[in-house]
From TrEMBL:
Naturally occurring in which organism (per UniProt): Ponticoccus litoralis
UniProt protein name: Protein p34
Positions of the Cation efflux protein cytoplasmic domain: 207-284
Residue ranges of the TM segments: 41-61, 73-93, 113-131, 151-171
Keyword Nuclease annotated: no
Superkingdom as given in the UniProt entry: Bacteria
PANTHER family (UniProt xref): MITOCHONDRIAL METAL TRANSPORTER 1-RELATED
Alphabetically ordered keywords of this record: Cell membrane, Membrane, Transmembrane, Transmembrane helix, Transport
Gene3D superfamilies according to UniProt: Cation efflux protein transmembrane domain, Cation efflux protein, cytoplasmic domain
Pfam family, one: ZT_dimer
């Protein structure tokens, strides 16, 4: 099983465990803030399933209907996660409004908060793994899942602080107030996830640092060519699509030009895992004298 799929399967298992712990905390305390925390964990489970399905689709090889592959399936998973976050926030606000109108004291608050702390440690550790490995594998679905889990850790911490304040002061209205704050926070995290995914769906360019590294690689490995220009690159899930024009001397043979292309492609693939490269070879009179200088 590919590494990304293993991580997505692990996310589903972690999400189910954390959901069980937080649901137990809510059941013991009757806190609407802890209910909101548990509702967010339901979203975590749903998005873990979506990420797993998307990664399976993205791993499928190119076919006649999808000649460039299925890599963008991961972005749809991240967008779906953002939508589910918005739905969860609306449900939380509804519960918070009801509790604000009739605030109730909590039962077994100490045990409930201890369970939330355990769930947060599990979520935090797994969020760190997902973001770090997701970036290494260039998986938008895994990174989005990890970022949402970290947002969940932050909201759990805020809920715990608010509930401790309610216990110390006796202000039971702090419970629904914290639930509303959770809703606002996860709405913001949902917007961040969706915004990042839209860039991928719209074929946003790779970061300037990556483009600069590509220019350096081409410059250092295209010996024999005149120049390279019109470099473009974009991410699509775990794949990176790169294309540019390579200008060669007019008297150069096709075999020699092909050897240069092979050398440059090998260097780019070594520097950028999952690279898909298209090179358009042009004669010397097509040079623009404003592109990549070949060393």
């Amino acid at each position: 099983m590919p590494k990304a799929l293993k991580l997505a399967t692990g996310s589903l298992a972690v999400g189910l465990l954390v959901l069980l712990i937080k649901t137990l905390a809510w059941w013991l305390t009757g806190s609407v803030a802890l209910l909101s925390d548990a509702l967010e964990s339901i979203v975590n489970v749903a998005t873990a399933v979506a990420a797993l399905v998307a990664l399976r689709i993205a791993a499928a090889p190119a076919d006649a209907d999808h000649p460039f592959g299925h890599h963008k399936a991961e972005y749809f998973s991240a967008v779906m996660e953002g939508v589910l976050i918005v739905i969860a926030a609306i449900l939380i606000l509804r519960e918070a409004w009801g509790a604000w109108q009739a605030p109730q004291p909590m039962t077994e608050p100490g045990l409930g908060l201890a369970l939330v702390a355990v769930a947060s440690v599990i979520n935090g550790a797994w969020a760190f793994v997902l973001v770090r490995r997701g970036r290494a594998l260039r998986s938008p679905a895994l990174v989005a899942d990890g970022q949402h889990l970290w947002a969940d850790v932050v909201t759990s911490a805020g809920v715990s602080v608010g509930l401790l304040g309610a216990l110390v002061t006796g202000w039971h209205w702090l419970d629904p107030l914290m639930a509303a704050a959770v809703a606002v926070h996860i709405l913001w995290s949902g917007w961040q996830v969706v915004r990042g995914s839209v860039g991928g769906l719209m074929d946003e360019s790779v970061p300037d640092t990556d483009l600069e590294q590509m220019r350096t690689v081409i410059s250092e490995h295209a010996e024999g060519a005149v120049e390279a220009h019109d470099l473009r690159a974009r991410h699509a899930g775990q794949a990176t699509f790169v294309e540019f024009h390579l200008v060669v001397p007019g008297e150069m043979s096709v075999d020699s030009a092909h050897d240069i292309c092979d050398r440059v492609e090998a260097a780019l693939k070594a520097a950028f895992e999952g690279c898909r490269i298209t090179i358009h070879v042009e004669p010397e009179h097509k040079a623009k004298h404003s592109g990549i200088v070949v060393l």
